[in-house]
């Protein structure tokens, strides 16, 4: 487990004290390197890796040190080391920070000031956590929309301040559940005028803040920073892919999200390294599956089917990727299993059994300041209120029905604000539920099963 935190002031070490009861934090681990600070930005980022932990065990911990002070005591539960333990994770992309009532926008890139809110999604996650319904979280890119901070404060440099606020806003989740992240285009850079005028752009270009603040298991999986990595958890091999850089046709091959030449991007490894790693990782996972390893291979990344299809659909098919999750599009789209070309039309819409292709799911409606359609403004209070509609559109199939050739791959869609939860029941069953972030009702439900 990696524990990471931020301090305004330099401390003499980065230390975590931990133990299996709250009253006896009898073990201690420190980072071998001093805390990292940004040039021009201030503040210190700390990370400590806790190793040789017992599986399925709750640990209590605090972080800091005697010199800089200690955090309060939090706890987390380690991953199981078997393939039988049921677990659940929430998967979504594109969650902003607060909402337009709390952080009104002054300007926007397309001239439209948005009415929006990430609060219903944030509250849904809190509820799921409190109920004990989720064991981990996977935010598949566009984390807090920190690069849009200037839309709220056009003349000030607020990137780091807003990122800190966002991290505090989600701390009730991140201090107790593993919060896994994938790179999205909004992680790319600070392109605010204040960042450029004050020469901070170089410290924040090419996913720097994203890679300083988060610590995914890339070292352990042969990946690079938080850009690409994989890990096993229970009956699943999870792979987090990079949809932004380092493959032919990537949107941010040489420059970041704003495509300004003075902020080069990409090239996290020599050309070809990333896709070679992905192929080797999927191949190994598929072989391991045949030899008693995790039975499910689940991939997540920021951009939808179309982008991933070009680089990776052939690999997904060859090595039997069961599901792919993404954000970027601010809605919900679920497909029938497909290898990117042929759609398996014989399945029931709520139950895919022995699918040959990958199930593609866009879960990108957590709410952000680039989305206006999910929120209305309450006339009386002037505050943003969630739109009541939770309309879902489905292509209904009777059992055995074959959809006409040419029908869309996307068969269940909604624009309602939502948060998804995947439950890994065991080696032969997955359950996916999409919850309305505003009403909590289950908007979509799917079982994916395999003959064991
Ligand atoms: Fe995006």
TrEMBL record:
Residues 1-78 form the Purple acid phosphatase N-terminal domain. It catalyses: a phosphate monoester + H2O = an alcohol + phosphate. Belongs to the metallophosphoesterase superfamily. Purple acid phosphatase family. It is an enzyme of class 3 (hydrolase). The keyword Plastid does not apply. It comes from Cymbomonas tetramitiformis. GO terms for molecular function: acid phosphatase activity; metal ion binding. Pfam families: Metallophos (PF00149), Pur_ac_phosph_N (PF16656). Signal peptide: none annotated. Keywords: Glycoprotein, Hydrolase, Signal. Residues 121-332 form the Calcineurin-like phosphoesterase domain. This is Purple acid phosphatase. Its EC number is 3.1.3.2.
């Amino acid at each position: 487990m990696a524990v990471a935190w931020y301090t305004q002031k330099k401390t003499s070490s980065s230390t975590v004290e931990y133990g299996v009861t709250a009253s006896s934090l009898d073990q201690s681990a420190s980072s071998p390197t001093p805390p990292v600070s940004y040039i021009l930005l201030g503040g210190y980022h700390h990370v400590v890796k806790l190793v040789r932990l017992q599986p399925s065990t709750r640990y209590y911990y605090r972080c800091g040190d005697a010199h800089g002070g200690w955090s309060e005591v939090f706890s987390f539960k380690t991953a199981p080391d078997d393939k039988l333990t049921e677990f659940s994770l929430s998967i979504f992309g594109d969650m902003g920070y607060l909402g337009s009532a709390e952080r009104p926008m002054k300007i926007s890139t397309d001239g439209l000031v948005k009415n929006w809110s990430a609060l219903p999604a944030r509250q849904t996650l809190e509820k799921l956590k409190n109920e004990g319904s989720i064991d981990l979280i996977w935010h598949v890119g566009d984390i807090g929309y920190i690069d849009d901070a200037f839309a709220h404060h056009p003349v000030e440099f607020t990137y780091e301040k807003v990122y800190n606020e966002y991290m505090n806003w989600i701390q009730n989740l991140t201090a107790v559940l593993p919060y896994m992240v994938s790179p999205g285009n909004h992680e790319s850079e600070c392109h605010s005028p204040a960042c450029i005028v004050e020469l901070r752009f170089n410290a924040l270009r090419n996913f720097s803040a994203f890679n300083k603040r988060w610590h995914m298991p890339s070292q352990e999986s042969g990946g690079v920073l938080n850009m690409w990595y994989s890990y096993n958890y229970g009956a699943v091999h999870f792979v987090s892919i990079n949809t932004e850089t380092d493959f032919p046709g990537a949107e941010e091959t040489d420059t970041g999200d704003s495509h300004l030449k003075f902020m080069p991007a990409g090239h996290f490894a020599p050309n070809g390294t990333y896709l070679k790693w992905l192929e080797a990782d999927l191949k190994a996972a598929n072989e391991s599956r045949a030899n008693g390893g995790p039975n499910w291979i689940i991939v997540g990344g920021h951009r939808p089917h179309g982008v991933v299809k070009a680089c990776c659909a052939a690999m997904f098919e060859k090595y039997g990727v069961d599901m792919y999750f993404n954000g970027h599009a601010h809605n919900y789209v679920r497909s029938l299993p497909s290898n990117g070309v042929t759609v398996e039309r014989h399945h029931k819409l709520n139950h895919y059994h022995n699918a040959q292709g990958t199930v593609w799911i866009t879960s990108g409606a957590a709410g952000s300041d680039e989305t206006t359609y999910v929120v209305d403004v309450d006339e009386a209070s002037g505050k943003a209120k969630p739109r009541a509609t939770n309309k879902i559109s489905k292509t209904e199939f009777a059992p055995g029905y074959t959809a006409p050739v040419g029908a869309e791959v996307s068969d269940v869609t909604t624009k309602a604000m939502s948060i998804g939860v995947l439950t890994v029941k065991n080696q032969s069953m997955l359950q996916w539920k999409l919850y309305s972030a505003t009403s909590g009702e289950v908007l979509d439900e799917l079982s994916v099963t395999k003959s064991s």
